[in-house]
UniProtKB/TrEMBL annotation:
It comes from Conger conger. This is N-acyl-phosphatidylethanolamine-hydrolyzing phospholipase D. Residues 1-70 are annotated as: Disordered. Belongs to the NAPE-PLD family. Keywords: Acetylation, Endosome, Golgi apparatus, Hydrolase, Lipid degradation, Lipid metabolism, Membrane, Metal-binding, Nucleus, Phospholipid degradation, Phospholipid metabolism, Zinc. It catalyses: N-(5Z,8Z,11Z,14Z-eicosatetraenoyl)-1,2-diacyl-sn-glycero-3-phosphoethanolamine + H2O = N-(5Z,8Z,11Z,14Z-eicosatetraenoyl)-ethanolamine + a 1,2-diacyl-sn-glycero-3-phosphate + H(+); N,1-dihexadecanoyl-2-(9Z,12Z-octadecadienoyl)-sn-glycero-3-phosphoethanolamine + H2O = 1-hexadecanoyl-2-(9Z,12Z-octadecadienoyl)-sn-glycero-3-phosphate + N-hexadecanoylethanolamine + H(+); N,1-diacyl-sn-glycero-3-phosphoethanolamine + H2O = an N-acylethanolamine + a 1-acyl-sn-glycero-3-phosphate + H(+); N-octadecanoyl-1,2-di-(9Z-octadecenoyl)-sn-glycero-3-phosphoethanolamine + H2O = N-octadecanoyl ethanolamine + 1,2-di-(9Z-octadecenoyl)-sn-glycero-3-phosphate + H(+). Zn(2+) 1 binds at H213, H215, H281, D312. GO terms for molecular function: N-acylphosphatidylethanolamine-specific phospholipase D activity; zinc ion binding. Pfam families: Lactamase_B_2. It is found in: Early endosome membrane; Endosome membrane; Golgi apparatus membrane; Nucleus envelope. It is a peripheral membrane protein. Its cofactor is Zn(2+). It is an enzyme of class 3 (hydrolase). The lineage of its organism: Eukaryota, Metazoa, Chordata, Craniata, Vertebrata.
Length: 420
């Protein structure tokens, strides 16, 4: 961060500790109120940050194979026109755009109890296997090929918002959810109708995990604990403000908590920058913690590739800001599902037409569809998202390879020779 910038809320945990909490203890912690950021930051006390070795712009330029790519400054929060995170008088984060309107209690009542659910997910496994096959990821059979992308990028969709991205000598995992239910309890709540493409134990070495927000279909305690048990302090977690304490209670040692437009890196990979960028959404895990944590998207900026992870979001003007500052992106992961009915979902979940607008706004060369085909979170027919995506692409004169759909477990390699 710039020394002249505002006091940072970024906090890093890098101390030796053993994982002593079992999963049951972590689940019990769900009932506790999450804080709205680090206590030190709230009192104005500066947080401790590990120095970034070799973080100068010159070192980035010398290591880049694409010197014509746009450069970026260390702290865009200093610009007047950037959309900064905001809180209300109670200290809860808010969406600063006119496009945000949370549905009324009456609308929510109708959605959960009266509206007809048109998702029509088949109960037959045979039908689901035919319509939405789950493939074994390539890295289960050929683990030695992980990271062998040269100057290219490889993406593997593992289900819902969980993607594995290999770029610039790093393996990055987004919103890992490997449990059967998106719920605080594994015997009730939204149950996935397509299994994860692999288990945590089958993953390759992961360097970084990106968390977009706290909802159960994006932040799963069982998956966090399992990843931490496997990789420990070598795995770096990037989370928005307000999630650090929760991650600590799960035993995670190496956590970076960021505000919108703050950045950091993975130790030993300073040439790849991780920036927490805005999105339009909200957070809640318990009756008392609504919007105590921030939500966001992520921009991963490397010398050879740039990756944008939209997380979970409604459409708003901020994506043009992101594209202006960090585009073009070689790949964006953008949600296309859980969008009906619109009077409930519009502010928080884009539909396929709006997903294409995000693709254009962030200046993505290619995008992969996420947040569909796994959990029936809303009322659109379960196979509609890719069909409407195709129609939206045709409307904008874009080919389907510009915004593509993968099977669960399927990979695609970009900017390099085709992966076989």
């Amino acid at each position: 961060m710039n020394a002249a910038g505002p006091p940072s809320r970024l906090r890093e945990i890098s101390r030796s500790r053993t994982l002593s909490q079992p999963m049951e203890k972590a689940e019990e912690e769900e009932r506790n109120l999450m804080g709205g950021g680090s206590p030190k930051a709230e009192t104005g006390e500066e947080a401790v940050v590990r120095p970034r070795d070799g973080s100068s712009q010159e070192s980035r330029k010398s290591s880049s194979s694409r010197s014509s790519r746009k450069s970026f400054r260390l702290d865009y929060r200093l610009e007047e026109d950037v959309t900064k995170s905001k809180r209300d008088k109670h200290g809860r984060f808010i969406n600063p755009w006119s496009t945000w309107k949370f549905p009324s209690y009456g609308t929510l009542f109708r959605f959960f109890l009266l509206d007809k659910d048109h998702s029509q997910v088949p109960s037959s496994k045979e039908v689901l296997d035919r319509e939405l096959p789950v493939l074994e990821p390539y890295f289960v059979r050929n683990p030695r090929q992980v990271g062998q992308t040269g100057s290219g990028l490889r993406v593997t969709w593992l289900g819902h918002a969980t993607v594995l991205v290999e770029m610039d000598d790093l393996v990055v995992l987004t919103d890992p959810v490997f449990s059967q239910r998106a719920s605080p309890l594994q015997f009730v709540g939204y149950k996935r109708f397509r299994d994860p493409a692999c288990a945590v134990a089958q993953l390759p070495r992961v360097h970084a995990v990106l968390i977009s927000h706290t909802h159960y279909d994006h932040l799963d305690v069982g998956s966090v604990v399992s990843l931490n048990e496997r990789f420990g302090g070598e795995l770096r977690w990037f989370v928005p403000l307000g999630l650090l304490d929760w991650m600590q209670r799960c035993g995670c040692e190496n956590v970076i908590e960021l505000d919108w437009w703050e950045e950091n890196c993975v130790p030993g990979h300073d040439e790849v920058t991780f920036v927490c960028t805005p999105s339009q959404h909200w957070c809640k895990r318990t009756p008392l913690d609504e919007n105590r944590a921030l939500w966001g998207s992520w921009s991963v900026l490397g010398p050879c590739n740039r990756f944008f992870f939209a997380g979970d979001t409604g459409y708003c003007p901020v994506f043009e800001e992101i594209g202006k500052r960090f585009g073009p992106f070689d790949l964006a992961a953008i949600p296309i599902g859980a969008y009906m009915p619109r009077n409930v979902m519009q502010s928080q979940h884009v539909d396929p037409e709006e997903a294409v607008r995000i693709h254009i706004d962030v200046q993505a060369k290619q995008s992969v569809a996420i947040h569909w085909g796994t959990f029936a979170l809303a009322h659109e027919p379960y196979l509609d998202p890719p069909l409407r995506l195709k129609e939206a692409l045709e409307k904008h004169g874009l080919s389907q390879d510009k915004f593509f759909v993968l099977n669960h477990g399927e990979s695609r390699e970009l900017n390099s020779e085709v992966f076989e």
